[in-house]
Here is the input.
Amino acid sequence: MKGKKRILTGQRTSGPRHIGHLVGTLRQYVALQDSHDCYFLVADLHALTTHYDRPCELSSNTLEVTADFLACGINPDKACLVLQSAIPEHAQLSLLLGMLAGVARLERNPTYKDQLRELKLQPSLGFLSYPVLQAADILLYQGEYVPVGDDQLPHLELAREIARRFNQLYGHTFPEPQPILSNMPRLPGTDNRSMHTSYGNAIFLKDTPEETTRKVMDMYTDPTRIHTSDPGHVEGNPLFVYLDQFDPDKEKVSKYKDAYLAGKVGDVEIKKHLAGVLNESLSSLREQRARLISKPDSLLDVLQNGTQRARAQAEQTYAEAARKMGILALNHKTIQGDTQ
Ligand code: TRP
Here is the structure.
């Protein structure tokens, strides 16, 4: 893939993907795979930081996320779909880069602080060094651009700092990776907090139409509105945020908004319409996904192939970084060289 800029990004396998992922990142991945040399990482080691006590869930999530990626349109013939744990150099480079990352700096990371608060975690060493592993993921493939949601920017900044430090100490080795931010607003969850796999407020790509409808009918709307005839708020109302994203009939959405503002249409009618729109918009993705998840061996084959293709680059970068840091390579060639 000569001449194309290299992209590396990934998602931790914390659970099946939801419509927030679809709108925020997955559609962007699909759009980038023609114009860029893309590596998409199924980041199961990152998922371990929060799921180390649930091995069965972790392994099934790896397949779920892979099925979601493919069903959204990631094409394994165009992009490399890599299983993070299957390439040991991710963990190895993370160990080396860990020497260049200060503990106080890692503790100041806002994502780290937020997650500790939200998930009420006892911080582990693995969790603290999450962004170091992420830096290793990116730098291992010499990733130049990293499409991410804005929640990942602090991690990316750290990856840039580590790359800079490495280059200063050992000579130029890594490009400083640049973010590509999605221009889509973050989709709120059905309760109007941000949509999250573990907050109970997500509509998953794998949900059935019935589950989707039930979730939509229970959605948070406009708390200031008591009667249908009360003028409602459209701004910041998740019903309309979803309609803006998923309803192709913009004119109809605009009429609904006017009616809502004027107190002429009830929540139930909008919700029924939205459920129909979502189910329609997701139906072919869901069919495709159901087919994929019913053949776990084919999903493993896809991961196997992508990982195989990525391996040489990972080995080469790791060997170079290790050598520059003064690690001797006792590989086949040196041993042969010594005895000749
Ligand atoms: N931290 C990212 C997330 O939570 C996942 C991830 C792992 C990642 N390695 C990466 C993202 C490398 C971008 C680049 O979704």
Summary: The longest strand covers residues 6-12. Residues 8-12, 41, 43, 46, 134, 137-138, 146, 148, 152, 155 surround tryptophan (CB under 6 Å). Residues 336-340 have pLDDT under 50 and may be disordered. The longest helix spans residues 296-324.
